[in-house]
Amino acid sequence: MKDDDWQNTVNFLQQAFADNYQFDIFKLLLTTDERSALVTRVKIVKALLEGTINQRQLKDQLGIGIATVTRGSNSLKDVSPQFKQWLETSLLDKQKGA
C-alpha cells in the first residue's frame, strides 16, 4: 500500500465524517463482520486502558482469541503519549461523567 493511497483514504473518511456521513460510509465500506470486529477492537482498547481485568479474562469476556487481545495490547504500546491520553479521555473519562 502506498502512503499517498492511505492518506487519500484518510482524507476521504475525514470528509465523510465532516459531512455527517459516518454511519453511511462505514456501512458502505465495511461488512457487518468488519463493523463487529471494529466494535470489539474498541472494547479491547477500552478494557486495556481501564486495566481492571487481565488479557485472559478479557478474552473470555469478549469471546475472542487471546491473539486478538495480544495484538490490541501490542498496538496500544506503540501509540504516542499524546494519543494514549486522548484515548483515555475519549474512552474512559467521558463514561465516568455519564
What attributes characterize this protein structure?
about 100 residues, mainly alpha, 6 helices
Instruction: Calculate the mean pLDDT score and round it.
Output: 94
Number of alpha- plus pi-helical segments: 6
Number of strands: 0
The amount of helix comes to: over 70%
* Shape, principal axes of CA atoms: globular
Strand content: under 5%
Strand-helix topology:
Layout: H1 3-18, H2 22-29, H3 32-50, H4 55-62, H5 66-77, H6 81-97
Helix pairs in contact: 3-5, 3-6, 4-5
Q: Can you walk me through this structure?
A:
Helix 3 packs across helix 5, helix 3 crosses helix 6 and helix 4 crosses helix 5. The chain has six helices and no strands. By secondary structure, it is mostly helical. Helices cover 82% and strands 0% of the residues.
Gist of the model:
The protein has 98 residues and is an all-alpha fold.
